[in-house]
């Protein structure tokens, strides 16, 4: 049994637009899975069909073995959704939003209160538990929507752009929480425009383009297909020109900084051996390459 199985899923809208063209997709139990695609590629339609917010044209969806057509209540009870758009009652207190949401799943008020308290603490919202939503920052609202999606302890959590508009510090803390949630057994399906986020968090990935799955593999296997990386290096002493650094391609940025383009098969030890031979002492190094972004753009552009 898988967390999610999609077979020959199609969606054609009334205006004739074919949003999904018979996709097949499997997400394993306990996976942290990225579903990526450009705007209009079909990923939002896919999420809408899984959560029954959109009506399919044909195909099958199964969640933890429950067919979404035959056993919709059991299937939907396995799901928690964090939508891209804010959809909170702005005049309701944070803790009451969670307790009321739990009530939709038949959870008693005492148990709901206990679970709400745990989530509010874990997501850094404890001090705001009695505040109404309209007084929260954007980042707090995002975290509250995650808490609401988890209040009934679903087996599958779907996150649609969960960190949009959130500052870096809060984003990192949300990453930590989601990683911990996944480690405890919750299957997570993520859509995001922050490709660094998908690379950092996800084990497996599918890329959808023009209503079709064009890549479905492990994150590790996909990143291995990248042929080169670019590093930014800072030197201990100022330099006015770079010596020959063959077989690498180098570009001087300023008198302490240069970029080095390196084949993916080359180890950093080999890189530093060449630099040492040329008399360059390195103070710091960082990887400039947004690896997943390069591959993503290459895949969707190659398919057109």
Automatic annotation (TrEMBL):
Give the matching PROSITE patterns. Answer: ABC_TRANSPORTER_1 (PS00211), ABC_TRANSPORTER_2 (PS50893)
Please give the superkingdom of this protein's source: Bacteria
What are the GO MF terms of this UniProt record?
A: ATP binding; ATP hydrolysis activity
Keyword annotations: ATP-binding, Nucleotide-binding, Transport
Name all ABC transporter domain ranges.
4-235
In terms of Pfam families, this protein maps to: ABC_tran
The answer to whether UniProt assigns keyword rRNA processing to this entry is no
**Record keyword ATP-binding present:** yes
According to UniProt, the name of this protein is ABC transporter ATP binding protein
């Amino acid at each position: 049994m898988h967390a999610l199985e999609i077979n020959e899923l199609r969606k054609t809208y009334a205006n004739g637009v074919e949003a999904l063209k018979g996709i097949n997709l499997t997400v394993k139990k306990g996976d942290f899975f990225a579903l990526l695609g450009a705007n209009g590629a079909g990923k939002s339609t896919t999420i809408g069909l899984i959560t029954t917010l959109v009506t399919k044209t044909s195909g099958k969806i199964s969640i933890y073995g429950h067919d979404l057509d035959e056993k919709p209540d059991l299937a939907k009870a396995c799901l928690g959704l964090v939508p891209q758009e804010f959809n909170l009652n702005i005049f309701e207190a944070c803790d009451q939003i969670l307790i009321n949401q739990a009530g939709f799943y038949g959870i008693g008020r005492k148990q709901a209160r206990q679970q709400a308290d745990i989530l509010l603490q874990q997501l850094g919202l404890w001090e705001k538990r009695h505040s109404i939503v309209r007084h929260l920052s954007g980042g707090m609202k995002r975290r509250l929507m995650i808490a609401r999606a988890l209040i009934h302890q679903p087996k599958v959590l779907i996150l649609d752009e969960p960190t949009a508009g959130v500052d870096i510090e809060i984003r990192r803390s949300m990453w930590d929480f989601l990683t911990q949630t996944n480690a405890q057994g919750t299957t997570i399906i993520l859509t995001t425009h922050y490709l660094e986020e998908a690379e950092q968090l996800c084990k497996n990935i599918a890329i959808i383009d023009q209503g079709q799955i064009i890549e479905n593999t492990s994150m590790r296997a996909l990143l291995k297909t990248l042929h080169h990386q670019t590093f930014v290096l800072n030197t201990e002493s100022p330099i006015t020109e770079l010596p020959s650094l063959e077989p690498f391609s180098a570009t001087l940025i300023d008198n302490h900084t240069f970029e080095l383009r390196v084949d993916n098969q080359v180890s950093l030890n080999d890189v530093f051996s060449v630099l040492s031979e040329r008399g360059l002492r390195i103070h710091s190094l960082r990887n400039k390459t947004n690896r997943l972004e390069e591959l993503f753009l290459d895949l969707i552009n190659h398919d057109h």
